[in-house]
Queue: 4 jobs
Job 1
Amino acid sequence: MISAENVTVTRAGRKLIDNVGLDLEPGRFTVVIGPNGAGKSTLMKVISGEMKPDTGFVSYHGASVDLCQPVDLARRRAVLPQATQLAFPFTALEIVRMGAVAQGALNPTEQARQALSRVGLRGFESRPYPSLSGGEQQRVQFARALAQVPQPVADGVPRALFLDEPTASLDLGHQISVLEIARDFADAGGIVLAILHDLNLAAEFADHLVVLNHGRVVAEGACLETVNDEIIASVYGIAGAVGRIPAAHIPYVLPQSRHR
Amino acid sequence: MMKALAMPFRPAEDGDRTRKGIVVLLLLAAVLFVACLLSLGIGPTGVDLHDLWIYATGSGASLSTQERVILEAVRLPRTALGLLVGAGLAVSGAMMQGLFRNPLADPGIVGVTSGAGLAAVAAIVLGNGILAPVAMVLGNQFLPLMAFFGGLFNTWMLYLIATRDGRTSTTTLILSGIAIGALSAALMGLMIVMADDRQLRDITFWSLGSLGGATFGRVFSILPFIGAVIVIIPFVARGLDALVLGDAAAFHMGIPVQRLKKIVIVAVAAACGSTVAVAGSIGFVGIVVPHLLRLVMGPSHRFLLPGSALGGGALLLIADCVARTVAAPAELPIGVVTALFGAPVFLFLLLGKNGITMRDMP
Amino acid sequence: MGSSFTFRGLFAAVLLGASLAAGVASASDKGNPEAKRIVSIGGTITEILYALGAEDRIVARDSTSFYPDAATSKPDVGYMRALSAEGILGQKPDLILMEEGSGPPPVIEILKASEVPMVVIPTPPKADLIGRKIRDVGAAVGLSDKAEALAVKTEEGLKKLAADVAKIPGPKKKVLFVLSLTNNRVMAGGADTEAGAVIEMAGGVNAAPTINGYKPLADEGVIAAKPDVVLSMSRGDHALTPEQVFATPSMQTTPAAANKALVTMDGLLLLGFGPRTPDAARSLAAQIYPGAIN
């Protein structure tokens, strides 16, 4: 289990995260939602070990994250960043391979190929990354994260996937397939933490939903309890949108209603 | 193998450039070997490879004193120096480009060249004045030592400015590098104003670079620093690859980012400081060689860094051959040759049809 | 243990130093009277060799050797402080004659190690040492007799000049030597320069005695110097014109500007301390004090 306790991050006098506590349990898909500036990315940076909080601490299976070497942390969790600029034209395979190498794989190139297949990018191995579309680039990054933690549970220790807006540049079909891969990861015993901005997808995939606003947790729990008119209105400023069908002349597409 | 070579500017079909990387490295090693032979066998005295063979196979007694002196005191140390300087400059350039995620970065960014230049000018101008006692004691080593420590000092200053809470910000490093470079240039200008005619000529020749002063003493004095920057290649290659995705992503993949930056900056500063100290300032090698190699073998540092060492050594040796034969019996400063060839090659690459297209550059 | 180590180290250093010094002394003493392939480094060395009639024995020269004109047709081994060891050795010399201050030092070391006879001629900018320079060159190439004659002639020329100059009536004129005038910045010849020495030989007074060497002179320094005459070098076809010189703001108020007193002479002739120096100084004196000397 990965826990954050009493975490506060202050920058320039403003509290980006205010006394937040969060437990990430294995086998559970945790989703964080909230408006822009709520502190979601900051929280993920703290939990992933990238940023040191001003107060509070983060522990991985009991051990404080401060004491972990980057190499060991890399074996336990992989992070999918929000956006990545690339200065040099690596191929898709080379980028995914970096994730496999971070895992310490003995055959990183082969692992990388498999990861690319999993995200549906078989055949894209030799494409230079800068020549890919935004969505394809995002999926390559996801493959890199998967290559870094190929097994949800290894040596009895659950591994973690941290996804920062993994669906940002993807079309609906790919959004769903990415989240389904993450879902499988959690089902197999891994830890998943995702920041999503699409409330419908969050509602479908989250086992545990955390609503963040102004750096504080305003609601936490199962989707049915947290996604309701009150909370959505207070956080997003939109009233009466939960569970209601729009006016007759407006069609609605609910990905979570799709055929499986 | 021919298929791998046939498409030099596109990756292999399966996306894995390992095989091509190895092939290119082997080719570069061969080119370097040939360049060494050229450097050892070409020169205005007519001592050639045949004489080298005689010398190497132990029947050196049959060579005249002068032929032996040419081989031992001119050709061999010069070849060794050219190889080390070229390798050091090219690897440093490649590492800087990886560290700063920018193909135009060169080792000068960390302030080494401006610091070394300032110290060298100070040595030339003040060597008969305020610094005369030091100059007397150190003799021929005065200028190289000044240049070396000047380079390191500047880098140290820069590093201190750009590092807060143990984190080195690359942006701050670049910006403060510009500031310190400007300060160094201003101080240099001040000393140039104080300089007399002879000193001005010395400064000019120094700043154009030359391998003409090569001795085995100099070769051994830079060997540890160039050796250091090459020895760390296997340790930093993976980190520099990961760094291309950003400091955060590199950290997430297990790279100790701050430690990597520190190691690379120190190694590059030492290597470049030492090359500037013994050979003056030689430009273009640090940018052109890694860039050319990236086009051929891809940006992965596993192959780029060793390739740069081989290619840089070869390039400098060939440039040196040109420098000492074109204007014989005089010598062109080698910095002039590298710039004269480097710039057009660079432009050709950028503009030619096999060159970088907008799609490939961010 | 420690003290014996440092004692041994010191002893070794002294030995090394002594052997190096001995090496240096022996190398620079050797000339080669039979030399047929001489590499001549330094403008006046080349000039002296030509004056001694040894021009056919010269096989290469450096870039500062451009008198006489014939010398420029010989191969050029580069600037005398940026020589190429192999370039010089490639000329297969049997004697290398170089002015003191040639370099860079590692190249000189290599040349020494090559066992080609090498003589370093000291060249301080003093008129009374010209004779010694000529004799040194002559001794190195086995032409001591001719060198003696030339040296004596030169020394007499200098003596006669000194006597004639002493007879020039009136106060001594202040002469400002201008090495270059780029961007209206005056690079002047100061106290211990060849220019300063020649000016004195010609009966003038150096207008910039407070600076050492060839250094830039601030505008106010130029005005304070109050030169009566401005002396500048020509090189080939390039020479400063009076218009250029006296248009410079700092020069406009000088006494020299009032008389448009600009003297231009060939650089090597003027500043190279060699056999032509008595004539050069006499010519300078004649231009500084028109009509007072022939």
Job 2
Amino acid sequence: MKLGVVDWSILGLYFLFVLGIGFALRRSMKTTSDFFLSGRSMPAWVAGLAFISANLGAQEVMGMAASGAKYGIMTSHFYWIGAIPAMVFLAVFMMPFYYGSRARSVPEYLKLRFDEKTRGLNAITFALMTVLSSGISMYAMGLLLNLLLGWSFDVSIWLCALIVLLYITMGGLTSAIYNEVLQFFMIVFGFLPLVLLGLHDVGGWQGLQAGLEHVATARGFAAGAWSQSWAHLGNPAENPMGVEWFGMAMGLGFVLSFGYWCTDFLTIQRAMASESMSAARRAPLIAAFPKMLFPFLVILPGMLAIVLNQRGAAGGFALPLKADGSLNYDMTVPLMLAHYFPQGMLGVGITALIASFMAGMAGNVTAFNTVFTYDIYQAYLRKGASDAHYLRVGRLATIGGIGAAVAAAYLATRFNNIMDMLQLVFAFVNAPLFATFLLGMFWKRTTGHAAFVGLLAGTAAAAVHHGLTLPLGSIPGIKGGWLAVIHAYPSEMAQNFWTAIWAWSTCFVVTLLISLVTRARPEAELRGLVYALTERLSDGAEAWWRRPAVLGVVVLALTVGLNLAFR
Amino acid sequence: MNLDIRTPLGLLFMLVGLLLAGFGLLSDPALYERSLGLNINLWWGLAMTAFGALMLWLARR
């Protein structure tokens, strides 16, 4: 891929604005609340765009296109059932507790609701996880820029780390949020023309559908397997993902999706930075509108790519092959950019990709420095210091976090297996989380001991389930079956969904049972933290189109409509 | 917060849009074979400029 002067200028302009925003904000970062929570001053639409943008890292963008090629329109389940319902639930039912309790982070909410050890467990695993995923995303970016632009791995990593470091230490969370808004529009403007050109090229939606039928039948599936999202979910053997509707709806739609969107501080921090309770509740709902349309922006390029690839030489486009002769989908996005974009637009597309790498990194770093400062340093290392002291610690934690992420990126170049294993362990830790929050927020009897033991039991259940099952055709080891193989799943995805279901159910049952035999906290201490003991918010004074419940219903109705249209 | 995000957002998109559209006007038409014969730089550059202008207009006090 060859970039010209115009492409470099676009990339340069972007970097200039990113640093400029940090520079302009440096004077307004006076307290830890400014630095970690933007002084709770963000309008709902800014918080909302940052909310989805923080999740829209480059790995997500590239991964979704790769899945679009590999699985077709079924990939959109990751959005339509794997995100939207959970975002609505967060906004309508959970945000009142996160925002209303004045907790400064998700782990701190656990401290207020349960106890110190539950917070500690969540804070430490979350901090390690954010640093690790930041490192892995840096590693992916280093490889990509090396491959596409010929930049050296070291230069890519250090340059991006330095830019992120500068704008976060200067402008804190506000810097990160503003840059996430820039990145959101870069992705939209960088990818929309790709989709439009691609659709025009294959002959519109009808042409795409016809092309996908060839793709599906050539692989031995029914004609609609790539262009219908629900019709082939009755039997895992009939769809390319190898999953069935129950595992999809419960594993992805309930456990994984609610576990991520309703408990992950990385995204919730953006909503917590909103200017008012009403804005904090609207932020995830405003985010849901673009989120439900993202499949057309990030999955469609993959579906177009597989159609072009199927045409063979006549299409003038080919996905590369892996060593074993199977298609390599990882590079779908860069290949499509190079296929349709001339110099100029190519610069916009590449800038959008680099922007989302950096925003992904910055998102992790801002969540890390907050949790480190409030929930680890202030909680365990040094209590009762001045706010200025904690602000300094926050800036140092930013540097430390980025340093650790760079180290993780280099570790990944040598020990890829260790990275895979760590990610697996974190997946086990995350899987049960939503059961704890659900019981904690909606059942006042839930106790701290129960929450803590329930989380550990859920994580153990995830590990044991993974150790006892294996996707078809895999060898025991990192893919599962390291204890014994008592069940084989049709695909890795089906195994993941069921690992999550087991972890969640175990955590739910254990937390419930232990709560019944341990002593609950007095009700007076739980006001504002539990549903039954919190005054209902009244939305009566708001205009109807600003009420969370109304917006939530609209969002859900539109999502059902999309599912029906592409069933 | 004293910086309205729409200001830098609008400025960035106007600058990138104008750069893209300008490049589209001056560049060799052969460049646009891959974009199906459409001068995507010119048209998308204008779209980005319009978006940038809209953001700046919304940010005015």
Job 3
Amino acid sequence: MKTNLYKYILLIADNSLILGQRLGELCGHGPNLETDIACTNISLDLFGQTRSYYQYAAKLKGDNSTEDDVAFLRKEQDYLNVLLVEQPNTDFAYIMARQFLFDVYHLLFLNELQKSHDVTLSAIAVKSIKEVSYHQRFSSDWIKRLGDGTSESHQKTQNAINDLWTYTDELFHQTDADKKMIIEGIGVDVTKLKESYYKRVVEVLQEATLEVPESKWFQKGGKQGIHTEHLGFILSDLQYMQRTFPNMTW
Amino acid sequence: MKKNWPLWEVFVRSKNGLEHRHFGSLHAADAEMALENARDVYTRRNEGVSIWVVESKNITASNPEHNGELFEPAQDKVYRHPTFYDLPDEIKHM
């Protein structure tokens, strides 16, 4: 099996799976009907992308593996999503701040991934870019609205940005799989996205009258499978059906 | 925050060449949000190619109490329909 490629696919796909699951938790619990549908809509986009990646990963893995096995039957340490996407839905400001901080990265990443020499990854990227462009537009608009809204919405959004800021640097960490995939012309050099990322984020924060956090201390670990305490709870929800009724299908 | 955002009416064009049709209404704080909400609420199953939103308060509607004077006088004016011509059989689709 092409271990590095397999791992590289998980590094991309697990972000979409876990963020999609987080947004899916809002189904029926959004602040109002319109934002409820919007958030679950984004969730479905992300699950759609995840399925394409996992189908590819399952094919590489062989042994009659399916996308469901890859999605549901791994241990916590085998999930390689960044810490940012597993952070909880503390309030609507956190939900939008998490989304915004991820979307800006996600769009930059996919723009590079579409140039990949791996035709499958490139095709998934091309298809996902339209969806993610909308996600970024949606979450950026909300950051501006909340930040430049009432004093309460401003404060809550500032708190969310301050708390989540510490998870942003991990987006640009290179794993061994990253390095090997870059050499083969398959992977994206995430270190090169860093400058454009913070430029775009700062632009939106300034327009939203929010302060850019000064903290230079950053959390990391997700890409190595070392997660915050939140992922275990997400997985116990996510994996419940497959663990309780093995091989169940709809 | 006030309990409710303003109400907006949503018009969607389902295909190029067709007119925008009223699809429903929704709440949003501003026009941009109304468009985004309309996109998510009304076009997520591929229903449209163009959306208009207008704040409901900007629509002037006829009063149902005035239906008598507004619409009933038209009921007995059948001669306003072009139905009094003999059409040759060769003409189809009229």
Job 4
Amino acid sequence: MRDLWPWKLELRGTPSRAMTYLSPVLAIVMTMLLGALLFIALGKDPLAGLKVFLIDPFNGKRAISELLLKSVPLILCALGLAVCFRANVWNIGAEGQFTVGALFAGATLVLIDVPGHATPGSLGLVLMIIAGILGGAFWASITALLRDRFNANEILVSLMLTYVAQLLLMYAVNGPLKDPNGMNFPQSKVFSSEFMLPMLMSGTRLHIGFAVTLVLAAVMTVFMTRSLRGFSLFVGGTAPHAARYAGFSSRSALWVSLLISGSFAGLAGAFEIAGPIGQLLPSVSPGYGFAAIIVAFIGRLHPVGAVLGGLVMSLLYLGGELAQSRLGLPSAITGVFQGMLLFLLLASDTLIDYRLRRKAKV
Amino acid sequence: MTSTIPRLEIAHIRKAYPGVLANDDINLRVAPGEIHAVLGENGAGKSTLMKIIFGTVKPDAGEIFWNGEQVHIANPHVARKLGIAMVFQHFSLFDTLTVAENIALGLASDVSMPELVTQIRQTGEKYGLELEPHRHVHTLSVGERQRVEIVRALLTNPQLLILDEPTSVLTPQAVDKLFVTLRKLAAEGCSILYISHKLDEIRALCHSATVMRNGKVTGNCDPRNETSAGLSRMMIGDELVRLQRERNPDSQRSERKLHINRLNLLKAHLFATELHNIECEVRAGEIVGIAGVSGNGQQELLAALSGEDQRAAPNMLMLAGRAAGHLAPNPRRALGLGLVPEERLGRGAVPAMTLAANMLLSHQKPPFVKRGMIDFAYARSAAAAIIERFKVKASGPDALAKSLSGGNLQKFIVGRELERKPSVFIVAQPTWGVDVGAAAQIHAEILALKKEGCAVLIISEELDELFALCDRLHVIAKGRLSPSIAIEQATREQVGLWMSGLWQQDGQEATHA
């Protein structure tokens, strides 16, 4: 009986560094294999299906630019979440912080972008981006405050605030921010192009927000691996007593990590408004804030990893869209792939602390 | 004893971990009713062997016989069914559960909670291990947690009881009481495996001993016929240097470096101990000890000294002449404080971080940190220097803190705190669970520190240690601190009495004298 499966899991002496980085790769490969099985089960050619997911998003300059564009909000949200998770602050409300960031940014432009305004485009753009950052940080600070003052669970609070944020956005686009000439659609006016982000590549929608994201990833790498503040967050997250002994305040860890995370999510929201969307819509986010949780973990809670993870997740989004149009698969396919990826990643992470060993012959 | 069937016999046990051979061809026999010592330095492989017997670690090779029959102990559940109970050195208790709930989890049978509470109280009374069954474990001190473990083990009516360093946190009276208990258990037929490095205790208690070094058995003996020096020679290969304590004649007139000035602190949580009027001073070049059974306010006092608890009024704590009761840990470090906490893993060091990174817990000033940025190269070299100077057994500055044995991690933490050249050095349980070799080394470092003019305060539950090191001794009991007594005038009996809080009558005169 026991020898049907000749392998066993054995605790490693020390966690494997190699597996820490190989585990996400393994998870991605397994996701694709299971994806192929899924295509077969749905009666599609698995190779054609995988081609749509893996090859087609790289097909040409336009496709690649779309891939990079879509990775921006994912990477930004994941950069902030990685800080939170390392500090053991379980902010899962990046989606809400993203939404409020977009709302604040959009509202700022609705105020500025009126006929006959005298605001220079670049100033308006900067103002709307600052408003987006403040919006995201403000939304995250509600979670921090409730946890700090009343010891409310930050998982529940941040998650619930996501729905509040969405309702707030619905109210805004149905009420005060609605385009008066918009045929009563629940959306703001389309903002003037002078307030939009400059393009990075001509003939595409890829804006300079992508470059900003890469710079921020570099800054966060330094913050998390070199700065005392980043170190203190990590200590507070893994050993709270040691943090107290060291003199690192757990309150400041809570506030700093949530404010950073909220700011990044808010910035991502502002970039979407000032980039590909160009107006305020009820559907500013197809779940970027939630997908970013997976991105943060694929990226090993490291900023460089968040960039790579964000590109993979972007691939899944675009592949899912292409699968809908080319293979006639339902839109849920993106979510299925995201779920498989997270599940397989958590499973693969077992191999960081354990190794597979052949059972000894009895 | 060879005529009877041994209660437990293990033969040719072998266990290898990546990089180390923890157990190499180990043989051991324990007769019914025998108290058998397993002696060895940290890292000798004692704990691994006990875990194999208790089923938490699987041996690579070897056989185990229980009452003459070969058994396969796959997990602790099997071990408990056989009648083996174990008290771990690192406690396996859930912080958020109460004493009674923790004990209920370890028991196989279904006992109703009120019944269990009665049993806990009875066992506690019978063996001098008093416990409040409804307290949460996170509020207990180390010594009290150990009591929970021992009571839990005793409630299973074991045939073999394994005790890993059990006496390190008990008063001399309590140790005597525990020995009475253990002898009684042995007389009732229960075998006992007693892991310790305290040679006197082993000679007083045990019928036989197995000595281990580097994963191998290096000797078998009857400890009652051996001298402590002989035992320690078997254990570490050479004799220990006896400490030479020098009385610093100038210490009475030297500068007062640490003054705890009528410190009063209310409870921070329901089960904390209130501190009342704590009065204590330590002068440069002096070592002052605070004895006491754990749970009498040591944790609270230490938190108030380290800066983890900043509720005290500023002048209740004077550090180098400055009011410091309200300061955070880092400003206190700037005033010259070095502090080694009681818990090594989780407070004194972050388990999952490297030794180099752990330097930063108490070194956040240049050259370790400049303009908010960490110089990891410097931290690594500083950690490497400590590893070298204190002979810490670790693979290097990149070794994770949790990969070190208790004694080696303690040497590292002590080294880290000495690195800042403190003028006030506070250390709690400096040698708790630390092997003889490391303990001697730490003691020597503390004495050297005194010679350099540092003011040292030791909070310890080991009287041997306090008598060996201190110039003056206080006793803490129920959140109050006794007046100090010069070590030459102190007796173990008197200190033992003071531990129960019985100094108040004659104490008043002593303070005014």
